[in-house]
Design a protein that fits this description.
single chain; 350 residues; 6-stranded parallel beta sheet; 29% helix; 28% strand; globular
Length: 350
């Protein structure tokens, strides 16, 4: 396959027009490697990107949660990289703006991005700058390593919350990011973790993992959380949906002097009901935003996430609930979109 000039890929030609077809295989430039993609996760943000908003240009190969094997080297790259396994930090910074000068690449003002602004990982191969490679050992499964992107995002949110051992945590939402945050919170010594959601199947999965659960369809969220925490709200709450109603639920679940971290991408305008806003004021709740992850020499959420997953592969591995070949792209995306089917991380295995 490495000698072929073409590869198979899922290519987005227009909104809702995703085709499995032959395309030209990329060639690594100076400072790049050719990565043979072994696994690529489907992010919830890929769904509106493919079916509603489109990418930044057409055609585009989507996908930004990938891991694979280095199979070819561009000029000037270290020969020791050949054959190594790597996940991929998908953001390509401009390196010229003020945030880039501080190593805060997630805040880059003129970035490129695999899978939306340039071709990504729904393909057999991808040319990747060496700087974007996150190497991992052969003992770690490719599917788990492909979860490094949402894992780094989740761990970054926990770092911003300054979670302390013994504190209580509530997570509003029951998607992949929510369960990753719950898993990392438990790893970091949270005394109790509560998952708040609407899907009975996902709440049952949460209980199986030892978490408390709140069904947001059934009664007051604040009262349900307090019932589980001896009359108190949670010390730290993560909002992982991106709706005004779930942001309100996150504030309701929070205790006095607690912290709410907003993680979910907004689906529309975000407003608080008056009583929710009053609670923010009167209970002096801290609200923090979080975006992407840290990836520099001082702070590297990717390295930390991989180490965590390698240390507890069973807990993180079971979050991959379905896998598909690239040729079954429509079926894989339908699985993610079907609210009646239980799924967390759906992934392509290449």
């Amino acid at each position: 396959m490495e000698n072929s000039q073409t590869m198979k890929a899922l290519v987005l030609h227009g909104i809702g027009d995703l085709r499995y077809e032959d395309v030209k295989k990329p060639e690594p430039k100076e400072g790049e490697v050719l990565l043979k993609i072994r696994a690529c996760g489907i992010c919830s943000s890929d769904i509106p990107r493919i079916y509603t908003t489109g990418t930044y240009h057409f055609p585009t190969i989507p996908g930004h949660e990938m891991a694979g094997e280095v199979v070819a080297l561009g000029k000037g790259t270290d020969e020791r990289l050949l054959g190594r396994r790597a996940a991929v930090f998908p953001l390509l910074p401009c390196r010229e703006c003020e945030p880039c000068g501080k190593g805060q690449y997630a805040q880059c003002r003129n970035y490129n991005y695999f899978g939306s602004r340039c071709d990504g990982g729904y393909a057999e191969y991808l040319a990747v700058p060496v700087w974007n490679l996150v190497l991992f050992e052969d003992t770690l499964d490719y599917r788990m390593a492909a979860m490094c992107e949402p894992s780094a995002v989740s761990l970054h949110a926990l770092h911003l919350a300054r979670l302390q051992k013994g504190q209580t945590v509530a997570v509003v939402g029951a998607g992949t990011i929510a369960f990753l945050i719950a898993a990392f919170a438990a790893e970091q010594g949270a005394s109790r973790v509560i998952v708040c959601g609407r899907s009975e199947a996902k709440l049952a999965f949460a209980r199986k993992r030892g978490y408390g659960t709140v069904d947001t369809r059934k009664g007051n969220v604040e009262e349900q959380v307090k019932d589980l925490l001896d009359g108190e709200g949670a010390d730290v709450v993560f909002e992982c949906v991106g709706k005004a109603s779930t942001a309100g639920n996150a504030v309701e679940a929070c205790g006095t002097f607690g912290t709410v971290v907003l993680v979910g991408n907004p689906e529309g305008d975000m407003t608080f009901e008056k009583n929710v806003y009053w609670k923010l004021l009167r209970q002096q709740i801290t609200v923090r935003g979080t975006w992407n992850s840290s990836y520099n020499e001082r702070e590297n959420d990717w390295r930390d996430a991989l180490a965590c997953m390698a240390g507890n592969p069973e807990a993180f591995g079971e979050l991959v609930t379905q896998t598909f070949p690239l040729s079954a792209g429509e079926a894989a995306l339908a699985c993610v979109r079907d609210r009646n089917q239980f799924s967390l991380k759906v992934m392509f295995e290449v």
